Amino acid sequence: MAITKTDFMRGMQCPKMLWLDKHRPGLKVIPPEVQAKLDAGNAFGDRAMGMFGPYEEMTVYRPGTTVPDKAAMVQRTQEHLAAGTPVICEAAFSNYNNYCAVDILRRTETGYDFYEVKNAPEVHPQFVRDAGFQYYIMARCKVKIGKIFIVIHGPDEDNPFVPVEVTKEAKSCYKWINDHIWDLNRMQKSPEEIAAEPGPQCSEPYECWYYGYCHGNGEKNQ
């Protein structure tokens, strides 16, 4: 049991959220409007894969499921890196089992730029930290990363994708991530439920899907 990008972001919002994800996921309640946003984000990400033309997608599922086969994706990614594939989507990397899958990895003369796609009109701080986690994993995998971009949605269908460079900000997250990722790894394995008092982290930057459980009622998740 290691840390993915999603695990890290959720664990840094609230460690109890991550613990519940791992040990009591049946308590999760995702409101329909939130699920609709997640689905729209996935659709936007799928469209963005082609923003630089032809690409190779690394997604591999376990037989008979829709669960990503992370080991197979990592291996497939390494094969395409070795082959010099110009654009790789869902490029997967693992370091000490900590894992990320990068939306778009684009080869340059000196290495790779990467693009994290978000179905939003502007760049938020959590997007930068999200990209920073991916940079951390790739850097530890000895992948030479040049520029880092957050892709937000454009004003119209003629300009659907707008890359915003966040290289300096994302790379500066490296130490912060290294300072916390190992603690989150240990914490999520705890047999005892993590204690956390309800507070701003219940809704910032995202509303927690365990709000009803932690508050003793379901008023926000009904």
Topology:
Elements: H1 5-13, H2 15-23, H3 32-48, E1 56-57, H4 70-83, E2 87-95, E3 98-107, E4 112-117, H5 125-140, E5 145-156, E6 159-165, H6 167-171, H7 174-188, H8 211-215
Parallel strand pairs: 1-2, 4-5
Antiparallel strand pairs: 2-3, 3-4, 5-6
Helix pairs in contact: 1-2, 1-5
Walk me through this protein's architecture.
The structure is a single chain. This protein has about 220 residues and is α/β, with parallel strands linked by helices. The protein has one domain (about 5-215). Helices cover about 40% and strands about 20% of the residues. It has eight helices and six strands, in the order αααβαβββαββααα. The chain has helices at about 5-15, 15-25, 30-50, 70-85, 125-140, 165-170, 175-190, 210-215, and strands spanning about 55, 85-95, 100-105, 110-115, 145-155, 160-165. A six-stranded mixed beta sheet has the order 1-2-3-4-5-6. β1 (about 55), α4 (about 70-85) and β2 (about 85-95) form a beta-alpha-beta unit. The radius of gyration is 18 Å and the shape is globular. The two termini are about 30 Å apart. Residues about 220 have low confidence and may be disordered.
